[in-house]
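Worked Example 4.2. Consider the chain below.
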Amino acid sequence: MVYMIMEMVVNHSFTLTTGNGQWSRLPRLKNGVPQGSVLAPLLFNIYISDLPTTVFRKYAYADDLEIMHADGDWQAVEGVLTKDMATVGEYLQTLKVKLSTTKTVSAAFHLNNMEPKRELKVNFNNETMSFRCEPNYLGVTLDRSLTYRQYLESLRKKLTSRVALLRQLAGSGWGAGATTLRTATLALVHSTAEYCAPVWCRSAHTRLIDPAINALRIVTGCLRPTPADNLPILASIQPAELRRNGATLPLGRRAMEPGHLFHSALTRPSSAVARRLKSRHPFVPAAQQLISFSDNSNIRAAQWADHQWNAEWADNLTRLRTLIPDTGAHTPGLTFPRRAWVRLNRLRTGVGRFRSCLYKWGMASSVASECGAEEQTVDHVVLQCPIHRPPHGLHGLTVLGDEITEWLLNTCPESSAVKQWIKEELAQTKEEPVVERTRKIPPVLIMSPNFTRWKLVRRTLVDFQRKSHCCQDSFMYFSK
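Applying the procedure from the previous section yields the following structure tokens:
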């Protein structure tokens, strides 16, 4: 082990190569460790483990060292930080470690709105350190009052672009399978949306990252009016709040160990924790509540999250609960073809291209069913309709045999609803103004995964009088 470490820290050299093939001389490095190695952060932490005692608190992650001091007086904070920075500078000079002055900045976090632009004046080597109102630490942007709004706004833009990338993989009747989309959602969207979640998940601005729920709509193929709490069950992905609590729980358990920075704060009664604003939900009260909920400290956080999800789902009394009794690792029908999977989920949620929904969206003249029933709802289709009733009724949608797959692809009312609406719209084009016809396309379907096809239908209706042959071509394309 010692020999391997010595091989890492000695006899290092490097060379530079130009574009025309010229090589520089071979200088040797007298200090440092190879960048990107696994042992490099550990060796660096051992090297600086004897940092001198200072007034401020020290936080370190690999080679990123943060110092903090809390006081109600600005001059007191500046004096303590200037003095302790000189102590740290002398220590680093002794170890022959150079401090990066360009990356070393000062920041102030407070709720004093009387001095929102007050800057710290901390000196180091007879120079005033640069001050940043919104510093970035380990990829998270920190603002003055720790609301994390700036970070969540940038995170929203990143999630929106990644959801748009997923939208190119599948539509309502074509594209990748649900298993592939689920894996891509976990890798592209949720991994980004949950980075450092225990830090910012209690912010009042977490609603800014709601576009992440659109990824679940792509996986399940559900329309926008579908209740958002049904999407995690259909996609077999835990709800965002539960996943964040599952990431906070192990940090709280670790802080309960003696010697931890937050040990004294977590062990004191929750009523003794001072809070200035009711809108703030800091880490300590949230961790105390999660630890009290998880009675067995030996259970893993992932298992605790699964247990909580199953307990919450057991109290659900909707139709979806009867079709999917457990929140298992894979929702039944996850391996179905894309078109069958989408229609199955719309039957489960009750939001789809049925007469009751189409009439509400302005896409049908009445709610009557083809079989003569007064209203075509999902319950009517599944239980009573003599034309569209699935094999074995509601039990067939629970068992999901081969007959159900064939029915979803060919006999389900979703397969003929839109074609019927297009025929009705094309039949009325000679009687109504063009402007009035184009307003009938509801926004809820324009923003659905079928955006390209709905855009084609909209353009066809507008240009009907000028190019009548386009209507027939677009209808044939849509019916494929």
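Residues 74-94 form the longest helix (21 residues). Confidence is low (pLDDT under 50) at residues 429-480. Compare this with Example 4.1 before moving on.
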